[in-house]
Amino acid sequence: MTAAINLFYVSISGNTRSFVGKLEAEAKKQNALDAVAPLLHAVEYDEQCDVSIMDQPYFVMVPTYLDGGDGINNGYKEVLTLDFRDELDDGNHDNLLGVIGSGNRNFNAQFGLTAKHYARRFNSPLIGLYELRGNAEEAAKIYSTMRKYAADFAKRGVKRALVH
Ligand SMILES: Cc1cc2nc3c(=O)[nH]c(=O)nc-3n(C[C@H](O)[C@H](O)[C@H](O)COP(=O)(O)O)c2cc1C
Fold this sequence. Notes:
Number of strands: 5
Shape: globular
Mean pLDDT: 95
CATH topology: Rossmann fold
Low-confidence stretches: none
CATH class: Alpha Beta
Order of helices and strands: EHEEHEHEH
Structural class: alpha/beta
Largest sheet: 5 strands, parallel
Helix content: 25-40%
Distance between the termini: 34 Å
Bound molecules: flavin mononucleotide
């Protein structure tokens, strides 16, 4: 039995939570086909959540909430996800195997920008981006990428860094 894949995420309006459900379903489907395929252990951030998930290898999933400016040339002001970011700042970044992001493509170049910032901030690869609640196809792709990075970490004992 392979260790479950740990996922730490935040969801303000429920879209990320919904996509986590799709990831869980994909993990269960793969695990039923082959017991070596890891299940998902997801923890949603809130003030009372168990942050010990960051003591094991884990992935982070974050939506984008920016206020004012264009986020790129004139100011990047992250709102609503700052408490989660503070919690991540205190976590063990050697265990942070990858960042997955989301947003709304109506924001054009700002789409999924917070995940890109976190990837740089914590020197972890950006392993996936999806829009709003995502779909089963995106969940399958992201699950398979997480699985690859988790297996790589299990073999080498060292995480991959952000590759620009
Ligand atoms: C005030 C506000 C600002 C947002 N800013 C961005 C943004 O800069 N880039 C982006 O891709 N999406 C942006 N979004 C869209 C959210 O990231 C998107 O709806 C996401 O799915 C929300 O995830 P959640 O429901 O899990 O909180 C914004 C949404 C709101 C309400």
